[in-house]
């Protein structure tokens, strides 16, 4: 693709993806690469941004980027660690900071009327998060702005298009952060703002046509946003040569299989619905360990999908709805692998024995961009606005072993909860919601009868990417009505609780 690319070199900051999202919001295409794996085709990048890092330039694992062909050659913006790196290794000094340098601060400008601060005024709030501070500027450094606690909050290098800032423009609390990125990228680096959902669709469709020719492609639809948008793009590109398979694993929401299948057909997709519920339930019989359940579901999914794919003659490609956060190579600042908390079976893709080439039309997009691309193709708002739903479905919301009766109970409970969220116009304010069937019975009374039945938990969270989440403060009246309705309507349930744990330390799913 011939876009004006921006290269973001990642030093392992928790905010690096946010930088990329802010840049994309400016309709500018950018890519994140690890600081030590600078792409060979540097000439295609119009500007470079250095991210922050949990590391220090003063010792421990100092992360050294190779800036030989960047510094002085291209417009460069260094954020936090990046700014400290430029100072420390080019004649300046970085030291541990004495005062607290975390949280909000306000800028005052030393040099007014810089393009870099176009439309940004004295007092502008910025977000600081660092424990080292720049004591002296590097050679040829010119101070541009300070805050009360941080003297060297922003500087530039005379004779270069190099700018450095100690604060984080990517974070929401830096009120003019996006303006600052725009100033650097558009006014100083002269990068064009030509990355839009429409341009993405046009270019991707053309590229897919070129790549796939008359080949047949198979794609597994899940009912979720990513696979649906991937399917629409491929459908636009190759029409009936796209064969979609939508598997019912018996662990979807109530009526979801039929409803979504109908919707796919209305969209003109060449889709085959495969009801393999019994096969999944058989494989799950007697399993109660969450990871074993995930593995069993992953295995059966591959078997079913493979059987179906073999029915299509001469298929050459497997399409997947992989998105950008799945492919960004993370920088391990400690050097060790990060711990596996839950194995998400749909991330690893399908095994080699399928011998298909892989095509991933969304692998450059963030989730919100996938939705915007879908909207630009006039896809149904309800489909695009659906909450994320885990691949193993209700299996990881039925704690312990799984039976057909438990699935039925949970589907009914979930249908009441989600239905009410929609009725009360709360659905779109919640990032993800669902019900969990607990492996406990509790005593109740109904009429004059003692009952001893199941307890369910309701969970609704706010989040941006599922990495962190907070429980949603749903109105008491909503909870009261929903609880009553569940207990009255769903046979086998006599108690409802609401989960008020955030992630971390809890996770979104209970298993
Ligand atoms: P946790 O429970 O890890 O969930 O806080 C974060 C997000 O990931 C989803 N999730 C899964 N998705 N396969 C999936 O496709 C899985 O095994 C799986 N486990 C959790 C979860 O629904 C939430 O959106």
Automatic annotation (TrEMBL):
GO cellular component: cytosol
Keywords, comma-separated and alphabetical: ATP-binding, Glutamine amidotransferase, GMP biosynthesis, Ligase, Nucleotide-binding, Purine biosynthesis
Gene Ontology MF term list: ATP binding; GMP synthase activity
Broad enzyme group: ligase
Pathway per the UniProt entry: Purine metabolism; GMP biosynthesis; GMP from XMP (L-Gln route): step 1/1
InterPro entries named in the record: Class_I_gatase-like, GATASE, GMP_synth_C, GMP_synth_GATase, GMP_synthase, GMPS_ATP_PPase_dom, NAD/GMP_synthase, Rossmann-like_a/b/a_fold
A Pfam family the protein falls into: GMP_synt_C
Keyword Ligase: yes
Residues that coordinate or bind ATP: 222-228
Catalytic reactions of this protein: XMP + L-glutamine + ATP + H2O = GMP + L-glutamate + AMP + diphosphate + 2 H(+)
GMPS ATP-PPase domain segment(s): 195-386
The keyword Nucleus appears for this protein: no
Annotated active site: 80 (nucleophile), 168, 170
EC number, UniProt record: 6.3.5.2
Binding partners and assembly: Homodimer.
Function: Catalyzes the synthesis of GMP from XMP.
Cited HAMAP family: GMP_synthase
PANTHER family per record: GMP SYNTHASE [GLUTAMINE-HYDROLYZING], GMP SYNTHASE-RELATED
Name used for this protein in its record: GMP synthase [glutamine-hydrolyzing]
Lineage of the organism: Bacteria, Pseudomonadati, Bacteroidota, Flavobacteriia, Flavobacteriales
